[in-house]
């Protein structure tokens, strides 16, 4: 199955009088279960593409199909529901609620997706251990955690509803090299075990290297910074 299919996609920032950046994305297909590392310089459109894929931004032109669903055919509420049920997003700033505990942040994501997790406590425990988080972390407020821990909590939240597609924005990597390696290895293990399609966005060359080490059929994609944007595919 095709997870992602983009055709003639154009997004323009700003209004007609004050024209901002115009971003074009070439036709692009990602197969279900594939993990892709998407890189490119700052300003090349990585965050924009993730926002288009998650339905947060609507393109001016072109088509985005996710698992056969044309996003523009969905109403706003259908699109929100589609996102909650099928897509896990890890934002650059994590978007966790700082004063709530780790457990409450996760429970909120499950509640919003209206998914009836059979045994939520058991799944959370599995993630805590798989992500090498301390077992007493669940009752701590997110604001008391380190950046690396917050990132793993954001991953846990993105995975808790078993999304078919995971979008990770790691544009500003806050991790040291040892943490990067561990992070990538754990992430890939979970993705491969669940056959999750993943788009991992970063301009970090160390992360790119670890990605190829941990992904048997690694696929890379570069966004170039031009008046026109191209998705250059480079299969490893
Ligand atoms: P990165 O390169 O790490 O993705 P940026 O600094 O390019 O981060 O962008 C950070 C945020 O600022 C993004 O959410 C983006 O949408 C927003 N942004 C970037 N450029 C502009 C701009 N010219 N005007 C308004 N917002 C912008
Ligand atoms: P990246 O994530 O690769 O750094 P972005 O998607 O953040 O790139 O930005 C791509 C281009 O779009 C840049 O030229 C940026 O300045 C512009 N841009 C991003 N967000 C906004 C925004 N909210 N308003 C206006 N321009 C924006």
TrEMBL record:
SMART domains: AAA. The lineage of its organism: Bacteria, Pseudomonadati, Pseudomonadota, Gammaproteobacteria, Alteromonadales. One of its GO terms (molecular function) is ATP binding. Residues 4-236 form the ABC transporter domain. It comes from Paraglaciecola algarum. Keywords: ATP-binding, Nucleotide-binding. This is ATP-binding cassette domain-containing protein. It comes from the Bacteria. Pfam families: ABC_tran.
């Amino acid at each position: 199955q095709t997870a992602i299919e983009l055709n003639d996609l154009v997004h323009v920032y700003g209004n007609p009088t004050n024209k901002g950046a115009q971003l074009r994305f070439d036709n692009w297909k990602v197969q279900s279960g594939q993990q892709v590392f998407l890189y490119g310089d700052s300003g090349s459109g990585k965050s924009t593409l993730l926002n288009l894929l998650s339905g947060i931004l609507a393109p001016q032109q072109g088509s985005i199909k996710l698992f056969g669903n044309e996003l523009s055919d969905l109403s706003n509420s259908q699109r929100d529901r589609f996102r909650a049920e099928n897509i896990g997003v890890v934002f650059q700033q994590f978007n966790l609620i700082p004063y709530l505990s780790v457990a409450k942040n996760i429970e909120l994501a499950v509640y919003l997706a209206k998914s009836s997790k059979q045994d939520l406590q058991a799944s959370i425990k599995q993630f805590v251990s798989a992500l090498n988080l301390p077992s007493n972390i669940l009752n701590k407020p997110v604001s008391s955690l380190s950046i690396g821990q917050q990132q793993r909590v954001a991953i846990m939240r993105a995975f808790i509803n078993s999304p078919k597609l995971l979008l990770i924005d790691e544009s500003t990597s806050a991790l040291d090299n040892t943490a990067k390696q561990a992070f990538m290895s754990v992430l890939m293990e979970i993705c491969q075990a669940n056959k999750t399609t993943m788009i991992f966005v970063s301009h970090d060359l160390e992360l790119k290297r670890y990605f190829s080490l941990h992904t048997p059929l690694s696929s890379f994609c570069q966004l170039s910074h031009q008046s026109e944007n191209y998705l250059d595919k480079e299969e490893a």
